[in-house]
Amino acid sequence: MALRLALETSAARALGGLSRVARRGGGTTIPGKALWKLDPGAVDQLAARLPHGIAVMSATNGKTTTTAMAAEILGGNHRLAWNRAGANLLSGIASALVVSRKADLGLFEVDEGALPEAMARLRPRIVTLGNLFRDQLDRYGELEIVAERWRGAIAELPEDTMLVVNADDPVVADLADGRNAALRFGLDDPTHARPSLQHAADSKYCLRCGTAYDFAAAYVGHLGDYVCPNCGHRRPPLDVAARGIELRGLQASRFELTTPQGPVELELALPGLYNVYNATAAASLALAVGASLVDVRDGLARFSAAFGRFERIRSGGKSVVLLLIKNPAGANEVVRTLETGVPPVLVVALNDAIADGQDVSWIWDVDFEPLLDRVGLVIAAGDRAAELGLRMEYGGLPTGRLEVIPSLERALDRGLSLVEAGTELVVLPTYTAMLALRGILTDRGAVRPYWEGGS
Amino acid sequence: MRIRVGHLYPDYLNIYADRGNLAVFARRAALRGHELVVHPVDRGDPLDPSAHDLLYIGGGQDREQALIAPDLASKTEALQAAHARGVALLAVCGGYQLLGRGYRGRDGSLMPGAALFPHETVAGDVRMIGDVLLECELEPGSPRQLAGFENHAGRTLLDEGAVALGRVVHGFGNDGASGFEGTRLGNALGTYLHGPLLPRNPWLADWLLERALAHAGGTEPPTLPPLPDELETQAFRVSAERARRRGGRL
User: Fold this and answer.
1) Which helix (H) or strand (E) is A434 found in, with range?
2) Residue A35's pLDDT band (boundaries 50, 70, 90)?
3) pLDDT digits (tens, 9 = 90+) for A368-401
4) Residue B123 touches partner A, C-beta closer than 8 Å
5) Residues A365, B235: C-beta atoms closer than 8 Å
6) Residue among A205, A359, A404 minimizing CB distance to B67
7) Coil, strand or helix: which one is B108?
């Protein structure tokens, strides 16, 4: 068996190398797909060989960034098997296992739909769950369907599997209800609460009795400090809490994290409250693995950006900032981050491939409105540029401030031509539009290919 | 003129960007010099049949739909009275299902609806998801098309003699088998198409607005002056092309 596994993995590794030589993308899932075909059970065996076990992370929003932050914290003390480019189905995880021969710890972001099977095969010792928002309904179905599948899979986990959960999300917090091996994280800084729940807020009715929750603070979407006025179901006490949060526009943020090991001051070179959530989740995951507070502080201070998520790319004396958008909750936070300094030109790129979601109705649930009366020009791009243009127009953007340019390359160049030298062009792409834009910038030599690791 | 819109359960039923449809009503009314006033009608609120010129009900997740279903079922008389007065109505997805007699689960139980529309919906095994293209003929002799996106597990079965909103050109439609989509009962329309429906199908928004104006003014439906609709036409074309290429496939 061991010999067979060795032959399979070396064959699979060779395939990944060939794919990169042939420039057919990163080859990040090719070895895994090969191994998956040869012998799915081999994944279980490779996983079982990691001496420090496996930590998995899933959420609607923030999987890639949270996992990359945790990798930065844990990388000093561990050799990681890590799916860094976001290939988060079983085949992508299999690939990371195949290519990381000497790893001692597995760290994987996992697609929400793939989480039950990933947990059954990988037998993780730590499961981190960030949030559940409505997302690509055509692909994942309703939020409750995902939650129900997670519930079933978590019930199968051994008692000593550590659940690291976002206590601010009622549905996610409930998954750890009654479990001893659990770490609950959240935000505790009402100065950053939104005045009211956003239009597209999910999970706003009590899980126990259906009454609308009262939110003492709602931070991101429905994430916050909730209590049911009827039956009293409320946010559980926080083991790890972010306090004293200071956001510095598009540049950075700092906050204090209280933990079972004591408090620590954190600096983050990323904007937005959603990244404070990601950092809090990553810190909690790393503490559960056994990292020290110093590791947490230094790792997060070193962290710049995950692939395509708030990436700054230099291009001919100007910069392009890519802020991935993929669902209402995530896009709302991007908009909120931009509100502090509305850019003169904004490129928004909407594709509708399977990875973007074929149903584009979600753009109407994004609150673009705060930007629309202050932005100088919106360039709507991508395969569904016209649809996006309508969203902006019906949202109140004056017709003269809208250009509809489906071609991503032409839209990018149009945007770059309009921003001044030394400044940056802000681009909000969906997933495949982000890949395509990165590809265009790669071909121009502005950015390294993603399989070489950029950040 | 002032057009009074009653938006049913906006906090519960809003999953497929229903506010996009309302934004289209508001802007297209304003561009013709009319004002749209939207009133939410929530759980426990009485529904006054004469208080609205246009009623809108969207779709929600199963949990939210179950929370409002009993309330909606208690509004049957008011809805029928409004419909008899000629009030225009658009129901999308979950709202479309719940305006029928009800939703029959796989265990045979019935979640009662408002019984305005002559249909019943039964739970299916596979969700029908994808782009859709319909051909409609709301006005005899003027066929039009509608492009949208559907995502539903329920199979809606129209009663004998009930009128569909349109014929499926590409996509699944009501039940994936009959070749029909949605329903039409006078000035009331029900459909699975979201996306949202109206931005890329502005003629339908205008058709509903004309009927709402007729109710508001106690007149025959006026003909609204046309708008350029260039982006709308582009968006329709892309959406229709998607339906041709990938609609109706499991």
Assistant:
1) helix A431-443
2) confident
3) 999 998 999 999 999 999 999 999 999 999 989 9
4) no
5) no
6) A205
7) coil
d(CA B88, CA B79): 11
| Parallel, antiparallel or unpaired: strands A345-349 and A377-381 | parallel
Q: Over 50: is that where the pLDDT of A452 sits?
A: no
Q: How confident is residue A317, by pLDDT bands cut at 50, 70 and 90? A: confident
Smallest Cα distance from A136 to chain B, Å: 11
Can you say whether residue B44 is alpha, beta or left, with left for phi > 0 and alpha for psi between -120 and 50 degrees?
left
Contacts of B50 (CB under 8 A, 6+ apart): B82, B85
Token pair for residue B52?
């609205």
Q: How remote is the C-alpha of A367 from its chain's centroid?
A: 20
The pLDDT of residue A339: 87
The residues, any chain, with a CB within 8 Å of residue A311's CB and separated by 6 or more, are A305, A321, A322, A438, A447, A454, A455
Q: To the nearest whole angstrom, how far is the Cα of A380 from the nearest Cα of chain B? A: 11
> What's at A90, amino acid-wise?
L
Q: Tell me how many residue pairs between chain A and chain B have CB atoms under 8 A apart.
A: 87
DSSP tag of A400: G
Stretch (H or E) spanning B188: strand B188-191
pLDDT band of residue A188 (cuts 50, 70, 90) is very high
Task: Take residue A446 and report the two structure tokens written for it.
Answer: 């502005």
DSSP secondary structure letter of residue A388: H
pTM: 0.82
Chain B, 163 to 192: residues with Cβ < 8 Å from chain A are none
Calpha distance B4→B39 (Å, rounded) = 7
Q: Is the dihedral of CA A336, A258, A206, B44 positive or negative?
A: negative
Closest CA to B184 of B164, B209, B157, B168: B164
Interface membership of B129 toward A (CB under 8 Å):
yes
| Burial track A184-211 (b if 16+ CB lie within 10 A, e otherwise) | bbbbbbeebbbeebbbbbbbbbbbeeee
C-alpha B42/C-alpha B74 separation (Å) is 12
Do A364 and B67 lie within an 8 Å CB cutoff?
no
* B24, B63, B200: residue with CB nearest A144: B63
